[in-house]
Design brief:
The protein is α+β, with helices and mostly antiparallel strands. The chain has six helices and five strands. Strands 1, 2, 3, 4 and 5 form a five-stranded antiparallel beta sheet that branches. Helix 3 runs parallel beside helix 4. The longest helix has 47 residues. The radius of gyration is 39 Å and the shape is elongated. It starts with 10 loop residues before the first helix and ends in a 15-residue tail after the last helix.
Amino acid sequence: MKGLRLENLSERQQVLAVILGAGILIFALWFFLLLPLNTKRHRLERDIGEMADYLAKKNYLLPEEALLGRKEDAYRHNRAVHGAWDELSERMATFAGQEKLQSPDIGHIDFKVALFQVRQRLMAKSRALGTELPYGLGMNDEVKSNEDSRRLMLQLRAVEKLVGLTLDIGIARLRNIEPLKPVEHATGQKNLVYMEEYPVRLDFRGDLESLFRLFGAVSEPDRVFVFRQLRVHAAPGGDGAFDVSAVLSALLFVRDPDEVIPPPQEVKWVPPKGY
């Protein structure tokens, strides 16, 4: 069988054959040469983009001066936060010398002795002022073996300070005192406890002036209490007295701010490898 020869075709058929051959040649060039190159180019562009993102996150694309500037900014911000933390913790702390209250070396006997002494002091003060206090101050003499003596001692200190405060501002009838379960406040990836809160429920009868004096007294240094709940309603009898129920919390900051917000660490400059 003889092959196809162009001279045997008409002029029109020859033109069509040339176009068809050129199309086949162009398709072959695109499929076997250009398509692999385009695929490789897209892959390289993707790799370059991923590497650029990685280098940007590592700050390798910034000059050393810019990195040093960022580090100084981070250090100044950290010091500013540290200073604000120190100032706030000193201003909001309920107890003076709160560092001494963080010691775990408190036994059950220590707590019982302290409870007895606090009761004696507050009862003597209330008798001298002619006011009423609930017997026992809302705290139990019996201490279970699994109870934390340190926390019991801090609850006692919160009760002592708050009751002493109510006596100082002239609240005549303190009807109920109830220390509530302490609350821990934590932050950061390590969930570090930075503050302990010791709430105390207080029920008393008084007038509006005594309530306003309480608001002012709990804002004074070294005896700051935070209001968590407050309920006020008119007492029966129509004499202008009010029954007040409030939960006030003593705050104890237990951790240095550098432990919670560490200062920026020294980072050595390592130039990226390769060309």
